[in-house]
Amino acid sequence: MAALAIAGGVDIDDETDARASLDRGRPVRVVLPAATLGAEPPPGMTDPRPTVPKPTAAGLPLDAAQVAAALPVAALRRRVATCALPFTTTADLAVSAATVGQERALEALAFGIAIPHDGYGMFAVGPPGTGRHTLVRRRLEAAAARQPVPPDWCYVHDFAAPQRPRALRLPPGRGAALRADMKTLVDDLRVALPAAFESEEFRGRKDAIANEYKEKHEQALEAIAERAKTKSITLVRTVGGVALAPVRDGEVMDRAEFAKLPDAEKERIQREIETLQAEVQAALRELPKLLHEQRTRLRALNREVTELAVGHLIDHLRQRYADLPEVCTYLAAVERDIIDNAEQFVAVEPTPPESVADLATLRTGVALRRYEVNVLVDHGKTEGAPVIYEDQPSYHNLLGRIEHIAQLGTLVTDFTQVKAGALHRANGGYLILDARQVLAQPFVWEDLKRAMRAHEVRIQSLADKLSLIATVSLDPTPIPLQLKVVLVGERWLYYALSAFDPEFGEHFKVPLDFDDSTPWGDDTPLRYARVLAQYARQEKLRPLDRDAVARIVEEAARLAGDRERLTTHVSRLFDLVREADHWAGLAQHRSVTDADVGRAIDAGIRRADRVRERIYDEIARGTLRVETSGARVGQVNGLSVVELGGFRFGQPSRITARVRLGRGEVMDIEREVELGGPLHSKGVLILGGFLGARFAAQRPLALSASLVFEQSYGGVEGDSASAAELFALLSALAEVPIRQSLAVTGSVDQHGCVQAIGGVDAKVEGFFDVCAAGGLTGEQGVLVPAANVQHLMLRQDVVAACAEGRFHVWAIDDIDQGIEMLTGIPAGERGEDGVFPQGSLNRRVDDRLAILAERARQFAAESRREVEP
Amino acid sequence: MTPPDTLRRILVALDVARHDRSWLGLAAEFAARLRADVRLLFVEDLDLLRAADLPFAREIDLLTTGAVAFDVATVEARLRRLSKAARESFASAATQQHVAWSLEVVRGRLPREIESQAQGGDLLVFPHRPAPRARGRVAALCAGGEGGHAALRRARDLAAPAGLDVVFVGHAAQPVRELQLDLLDEGTACRSVVLRPITPDVTGLRALRRDHPFDVAVICASEALALEPAALADALGCPILVVPA
User: Fold this and answer.
1) Which pLDDT score is estimated for A57?
2) Predicted complex ipTM
3) Do B65 and A285 touch (CB under 8 A)?
4) Do B47 and A234 touch (CB under 8 A)?
């Protein structure tokens, strides 16, 4: 079989393609013996043919040494030592508030609680489910229990500035007492004042005053009337006033009689009437003065009566609150206001308004509301300092609000409608907030910082703040603020705030860094057992037996992706406990067993693995082509991890490489079509660096290679396939087939070292599942970076298959180890003469690249000759 | 208890100076309590009409103290409005109290019209000034003698079914203790008795009303205190019941 190498990008690996190019009439400039099996090598080149193992129908069988090189079963999954769990079930464990890990965060929390200075707010940093809320709250509550109960805060009417309710500070529990006392006072006054005003004594004195002035007025008019009578003139009452008219025989003259009078008499009468008229007007002008004087005296009388009725009631309250000067000042203002507005109590009917006819009652009720006490924060039943978690920190929920009530089609408000926010409730203690929620709510972040900076909380409606409405509203006096705020959020939020908000560091100096895993030490399983026991008791679940706890701890290591660490995502473990308890119930187990935990794990996977199942099914059907047997040149099984909705699984893919004469570029097809991420592209570019350094240090790398994830229709990211890609490339260059029964994962550096990758368990298990679907042959396995062995926590069925020799996992440190395992021929190292050993894979690659370099050189020379005839 | 048949009706005398609406409600209340009819007598004051007809007629407004010309037509129109308002106002009160009533508008002089229309046993109401608050008392003004006793009995009869107290008011010349004893001898259901001698003139009556407010005054015609009913009622500030001699 003759192989042709054709310039212009025709693939030298594929004879068929070369022939096709020739058939299309393309010129063949260079014809060299191809370095393919059966072809003669050029002079000075080694012939690799005798060293290449012959693939059988099943592929390249593993030899005994290769099988023996597989990782031992103990390295595939770490087991919890039975002695680490000295109990039968978790019911045997004493109740304790155990924690797992997070020592750094807890130390920081203790520091943040203890340090009294401003600015030492805390930020619980870490992923959800690591116990941030629970631990922070539990520790804060423990600390708060030892701290004094903060004061009550009330808002009362400010009689001098009604729009600016006054804040009153009272010892814990006395706010509610003051409210009750003021209600009693008003109720008493509603009885006492009307009684006082209805008393005979008061009525008599009031009527006396009223009559006195009425009589004064009447007497003034009567006096004028008497004088007029002497002049034959009478005072006649009209509808709106009085008139003067001449009389004869006690009756007013009519027009005819008057006309008969002598002119002199008429003139006299008219002059007299004009004079009297002036006197009447003068007397009437005195009336307003009299009325004013009357009102003043009536007011004085009202005050006198009111003082009598109110005084002893207020004095009683003054005595009760003598130790609170602010309250006494307020009571004095109340007394003055009641005395000035006593009539509002007289008109009150203490029944709720039911119709428009009750408007007066409504008005009076509203008026009397100003004597109420709005207990904004009541610590009467609080023990220690408050610890408040506000799960919905909207602007008003955090800072308080001013509500309105509808009255006759309008919205009105007063100090009784001022409602506390979380800052008020937490004042004197601790406030826990979700950082994401705080930042998501408009204006909350800035106003939270403002309150912390100013040490006061000011209640303002958003409409006022934004000047959306121009109506007069309330401006309650700010309340002094002294509290610690603990934000809870993800790391990126903490770092973003640190980077972009210069004020952030002033207020939140203490990060509580919650790790997502903790080292798996000798005592760690027991600590986990205590946490699980506590949770089971708290949730009234069945106790867990020792094997169930061990299984959950091992699952914690799987979740951590590390056999030496355990996840601190306790919420996920709690989920597992709940679900295992469910299955235990169905199985009528008295305690949760290992089998129940396993069933819970399997059921959870079953619920989430529809996509995985479809993918594996398509692989089994051949729609997605992944070979698990045989051998192929330039093709290797790579492994990637797919994560969907929190469920991750490994997916094998064929990675293929083709090489040809070129200018030293390794083309990442994924990148070319913008399906490859930057890390993947980086990994591919590293391959060029490796090839150049190892094989083309002294000559041009006259290679053009293309790499692709076959049948990959989505994005590819990460460099964990770079080792596999290099294997495929080396296979293509050396024209040595690769075992398709093996899969590879790992990244590679420019020196050919294989480096650790993530998701190693999922990747191994993914290939295992695909192989198992077609039947395990004992030839199959996965090559993983040696650095990843410490992370292996494989599924029990995978471990079992390995134990039985039906599947294998090998650890590789470098590319040479890997290629030897994949091809079955030695990689070879350069000798002192700088030449790779005869028959080694590296030698074949080196020779191939030399051929390509020579061809490139010849091609360039011929090109120059053509240009220079 | 059935009210005494001697209480014939409540006569409410209205004119430009006496039309306070609060009295109308009071009259309706009395009528309901005493099961009496109400007669509203609106008197268009003849002297006022004559004064308005004079060529130099001027009305001095009580509020503004300004003197403005007025004439008969204007006065008549105002009087009609007044009488209409009184009728509407009382109709409302009477409907609520289920009281039978009538209204008559006459032109004349109020004292004379009262004398011509009032009958013995009429409770006279003169809506002068704002109506007093109910005190639950009936005052009997007695000068002693048979007429005084008649007034006392009428006051007792008026007070007892309505649950009111009686105030016995005697002239200074008459030992009121004696009057009380006389009444007690006859047996009374009144809850309390207050004795007070007074000087029977306007000043004395005003002082009495100030110190011992009452809702109705009963006086014997033969012992009337030389005051016409309207002046008497104005001085007392309450309805009066004139008992025939």
Assistant:
1) 52
2) 0.81
3) yes
4) yes
